[in-house]
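step: validate -> pass
step: tokenize input -> pass
step: predict -> running
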Amino acid sequence: MMGSPVPNEHETVGAYALGILDDAEATAFEAHLATCEWCAQQLDELAGMEPMLAALADLPGSGTPAIGESLSAKPSPRIVNKLVDEVAERRAHKRRRSFYMVAAAAALIIGGPFAAMAAGGGDSGGDTEQPRVLASTAKELFESMNDKVSAKDPSTGVSATVAMQTKDWGTSLGLELKGVKGELKCSLIAVTDNGERWTASTWSVGKWGYGLPDGKTPESKKPLYIGGAVAPAQNTIDHFEVVTSDGKKLVEVDA
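step: predict -> pass
step: emit ->
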């Protein structure tokens, strides 16, 4: 019976990556590798896959070695190529996921003060074939939350509405702020029932302010919308505070 055909240099890249070539074959392939960009790229893709040698035993027709036999016994070119193809497909899948992560980052920059990315449909996670990137402005996210609480401080004139939404990981928040004059650096603080203080978000207020009916610019007449999140569950939050960087409380809102 005729033996298996001898693979050409390009087909040898998988066997070389798996470390199953003898010295002469490895030397010959390395000489080829020095002048072949395609093989160099394939070898780079397959780098670090030695632990997958054991997977050869699970592939159909791989000829599982008996106990005591070495795993270095050469599988057929068909088996090697099948394993190489599977690994290459997994690497390509990882590159596609990386692309969606980059797209999400771009959405964060372009979409406004707040953006979100979800893989699949829920917060609990789960790997799906193609993540969905969901980008929105802080105002749209604020308006999408139904649970809202509001308050106005009579001394500062600042009013705030905090929107809340329970998540598996804590509480997602949105803030609408009006009547605030700059220049300031501010934070939204969630205070729990036991007195813990959690910073949900920080931002700067320009000199013309936000949410001022007599504002000097179109933007200063509009409310400021900020997105944020904290780890405590929504039902453990007692109230929210908007404070300046020097500790002045602008407004407090009961949860």
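step: describe -> The longest strand covers residues 159-167.
step: cleanup -> pass
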